[in-house]
From TrEMBL:
Keywords: Signal. Residues 57-80 have a biased composition (Low complexity). The keyword Signal applies. It comes from Pelagerythrobacter marensis. Transmembrane segments: none annotated. Residues 23-80 are annotated as: Disordered. Residues 24-49 have a biased composition (Acidic residues). Residues 1-16 form the signal peptide. PROSITE patterns: PROKAR_LIPOPROTEIN. This is Lipoprotein.
């Protein structure tokens, strides 16, 4: 318990150093509250831009999706084999340790 308390003390001092000296009971000033609201109510003077025209998607997307799925399946099989190897090594290590 003392170790926890000793580790907690520096964190408390670090957080205390980050504190602010401003008084929380001070009222909000008009410059900080009303100025952003006034900017939002100004009229828009910019002209709208034309939206880009979407190009048709090639029919090769199905082939690309199939290739991506095959790559994902191969990666999953490789990950499963690697996990099985690690599990076998861990089991062998635990048997030799006993």
């Amino acid at each position: 318990m003392k170790k926890f308390a000793l580790a907690f003390v520096p964190a408390v001092f670090a957080l205390a150093a980050c504190g602010s000296t401003e008084d929380a009971s001070a009222d909000a000033e008009a410059d900080t509250v009303e100025m952003p609201a006034d900017e939002a109510l100004e009229p828009v003077t910019e002209e709208p831009v034309d939206a880009p025209v979407a190009e048709p998607v090639a029919q090769e997307t199905d082939a690309a999706a199939d290739a991506a799925a095959a790559d994902a399946d191969q990666a999953a099989e490789a990950a499963a084999a690697a996990a099985a190897d690690v599990a076998a090594e861990a089991a062998a290590a635990s048997e030799s340790a006993q």
